[in-house]
Amino acid sequence: MSGHSKWANNKHKKMKNDAAKQSLWGKIAKEITVAAKMGGGDMNSNPRLRAAMLKARSNSMPNRNIESAIAQGVGGGDTSTMEALVYEGYGPAGTAFIVTTLTDNKTRTVASIRNIFSKAGGTMGETNSVSWGFKLCGQIIVEKDKVDEEKLMEIALENGAEDIDDSGENFEIITSFADFDTLSKAFEAANIPMLDAETGYIPTNTVAVDAEAAKKVQNLVDKFEENDDVQDVYHNADFGDLEL
User: Fold this and answer.
1) In terms of Cα–Cα distance, which of 122, 105, 136, 114 is closest to 229?
2) What pLDDT digit, counting tens, does each position of 126-142 carry?
């Protein structure tokens, strides 16, 4: 992801070690299983499953893990009580956070999320307390040396791209949530390799933070991501050129 990415400062995706990688794969597998259970195991007719599989591939998740997760969902795996919940709140320096979860115990999860916010000096908010400052979008990253720019631009603009950023080392294409499936399919049909492809929240406005606040924000993100129920974390802090 380029340093100019619209998600670079609000979506923490670093896999620091093998344990972090396994944790991330486990969370993606959970999403794949639930998606397959709800809409079937064919990614071409199940947009939620397709999005989860694109995310899995973007994070180098082995095919055997993906296939196993689909099989569990189609075969009626133990996901009947899984519920997708979104929590909102405020972190260090007045930053806004959105935390997406997938849980079989709402009481446990809400208590954990509230506790994580509290220990970081933040507060958990009500529904829509901060989400008004974010937009649910699709993001696709394509390496510049893997595609003809004119071809990419043509396909992207014809299939719902809202913004194309070429200022970094990669192309970053932003779509509406509704057009993400259409555009990712168009890129696949044109044999354009996607370095990253997923849906998530982009802040419409950001909060500039200094080095001290940035570390606190990053620590809060880390605490959320260590929680097994948390799927993704988004915030509106702008780290600028700070190296964390």
Assistant:
1) 105
2) 999 999 999 999 999 99
Residues 80/121, Cβ–Cβ less than 8 Å: no
* E strand or H helix that includes residue 158: helix 149-158
192-243 pLDDT, tens digit per residue, is 999 989 999 999 999 999 999 999 999 999 999 999 999 999 999 998 877 6
Q: 234: which strand partners?
A: 11, 98
Give me the amino acid identity at 241: D
Partnered with residue 83 across adjacent β-strands are: 103
Give the closest residue to 198 by CA, choosing from 2, 38, 3, 59.
59
The whole model's pTM is what?
Answer: 0.86
CB count in 10 Å sphere of residue 129: 15
Cα–Cα distance, 130 to 66 (Å, whole number):
33
Go through 49-76 and write b for each residue having 16 or more CB atoms within 10 A of its CB, e for each that does not.
bbbbbbbbebbebeeebbeebbebbeee
Number of neighbours of residue 14 by Cβ within 10 angstroms: 12
Other CB atoms within a 10 A radius of the CB of residue 139 amount to 21
Name the residue among 166, 225, 163, 164 with its Cα closest to residue 11.
Answer: 225
